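User: Reviewer 2 asked us to show a designed sequence for the structure in our supplementary figure. I'm pasting the structure tokens here. Could you produce the per-position amino acids so we can include them in the response letter?
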């Protein structure tokens, strides 16, 4: 009774969500997978987060209402099915323009971490930092397996007094061995680049756990297919089953596709194989009496009698023994196909349905991928350097976008190409799990080649001389936009 009264008093002291906060939360893509009670709890947890967790901007920025709501949603999502877990798991969150440098634990241009869960240093435990750019990306692209907010708050579940071993603190003790075994299998697969988890998961068990949580919410069908036991334990731990929802949603999409395919197939048949008129006749052959088809291909000119296989005829013709029967038919090249009594409507035949089933099965297999075929084609096309264009970074520096999305090896190729073409030299490299920044010296100008998760590659000016060099490089490449 006292616990219930305390909870009521606590909640009554919280301010209500603003209209903008509520609108942002209502637009969260993961929300649709929660049942009514989990949705109610999700909103309540987000409200607690926004009241009790200090969200601060670093480097002079002020976090927006949407950014605060996204952070609240990232945290609340993990706890929506577990009202018995203590909440919130963190005390404060920093939002930064720049990535964090692992060596200094400060945001700077050399930083390789778009998100950090602090377990040492001046910030201490219970503090998370994320970059403005990547928290926005995490909600704009909700199926790519990368979610900086979910990742960092997942570390809070794994945090046992600063020890991160991949075993969440609320996991029943008797499941620990099976959990670690399943986690080890996906860790090995990630290291060998054959997992739905990105390769950063292979760093250690703590990162395997955090990346797996990302995939549990962003790519649940693939995670379940790759590691069914691990997925089952995650579903039991978090009391959520996103794969089941996605499967049902996918089936609805496939049912719609099936109806569209049937309609499309009917239209194609109608256009491609307009029925022709002819007559079905009995003819003697060395094999006995056979059904044959004759048709008038020009006025007064009749074709030779062509043999018709029984399976190509409508069932209604099987019992007709007349010498000549008026029929309508389709031609497949010069071969008669789909013969039916004159005036009867064509329908799907068993062979057509088998082919349709095969097509639907391929559609299903394709649809279980996180990216559809057209998205894959778009991604593959965007790997190629596009027309370079000038832009301005979030911190106000001039930059030259070299490509919109980079594949493995693209970053190194661009760096080597710049050095070779403009007489540059790579003077410093910093390769983190979330970003890569290489300093390139061209003459007396220093430029930074930068790539962040799932984004393109851009060349950023550092100083006045670098600004001039960047303009010259952009002009030589025919870059678009104001220099």
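Assistant: Here is a per-position design you can include in the supplement:
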């Amino acid at each position: 009774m006292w616990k219930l009264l305390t909870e009521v008093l606590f909640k009554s002291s919280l301010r209500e969500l603003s209209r903008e906060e509520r609108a942002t939360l209502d637009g969260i893509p993961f929300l649709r997978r929660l049942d009514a009670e989990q949705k109610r709890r999700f909103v309540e947890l987000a409200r607690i987060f926004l009241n009790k967790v200090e969200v601060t901007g670093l480097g002079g920025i002020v976090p927006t209402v949407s950014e605060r709501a996204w952070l609240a949603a990232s945290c609340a999502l993990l706890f929506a099915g577990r009202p018995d877990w203590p909440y919130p798991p963190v005390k404060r969150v920093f939002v930064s323009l720049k990535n964090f440098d692992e060596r200094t634990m400060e945001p700077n241009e050399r930083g390789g971490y778009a998100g950090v869960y602090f377990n040492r240093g001046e910030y201490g435990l219970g503090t998370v930092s994320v970059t403005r750019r990547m928290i926005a990306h995490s909600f704009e692209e909700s199926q790519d397996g990368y979610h900086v907010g979910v990742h960092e708050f997942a570390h809070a579940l794994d945090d046992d007094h600063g020890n991160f071993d991949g075993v969440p603190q609320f996991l029943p003790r008797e499941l620990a061995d099976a959990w670690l075994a399943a986690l080890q299998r996906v860790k090995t697969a990630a290291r060998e680049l054959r997992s739905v988890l990105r390769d950063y998961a292979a760093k250690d068990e703590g990162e395997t756990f955090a990346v797996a949580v990302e995939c549990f919410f962003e790519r649940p069908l693939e995670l379940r297919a790759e590691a069914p036991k691990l997925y089952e334990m995650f579903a039991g731990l978090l009391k959520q089953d996103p794969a089941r929802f996605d499967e049902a949603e996918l089936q609805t999409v496939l049912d719609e596709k099936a109806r569209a395919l049937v309609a499309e197939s009917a239209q194609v048949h109608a256009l491609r194989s307009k029925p022709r008129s002819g007559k079905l006749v009995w003819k003697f052959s060395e094999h006995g009496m056979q059904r044959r088809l004759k048709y008038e291909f020009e006025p007064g000119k009749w074709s030779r009698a062509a043999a018709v296989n029984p399976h190509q005829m409508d069932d209604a013709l099987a019992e007709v023994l007349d010498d000549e029967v008026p029929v309508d038919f389709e031609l497949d090249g010069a071969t008669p196909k789909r013969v039916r009594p004159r005036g009867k409507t064509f329908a799907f035949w068993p062979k057509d349905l088998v082919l349709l089933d095969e097509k639907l099965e391929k559609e299903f297999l394709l649809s279980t991928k996180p990216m559809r075929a057209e998205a894959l084609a778009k991604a593959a096309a965007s790997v190629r350097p596009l027309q370079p264009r000038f832009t301005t970074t979030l911190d106000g520096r001039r930059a030259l976008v070299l490509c919109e999305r980079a594949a493995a090896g693209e970053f190194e190729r661009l760096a080597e190409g710049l050095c070779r073409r403009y007489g540059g030299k790579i003077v410093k490299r910093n390769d983190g799990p979330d970003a890569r920044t290489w300093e390139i010296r061209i003459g007396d100008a220093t430029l930074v080649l930068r790539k962040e998760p799932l984004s393109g590659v851009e060349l950023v000016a550092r100083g006045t001389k670098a600004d001039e060099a960047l303009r010259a490089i952009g002009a030589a490449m025919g870059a678009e936009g104001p220099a």
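For the response letter, you might also mention the following. The chain has 15 helices and 20 strands. Residues 30 and 401 are 31 Å apart (CA to CA).
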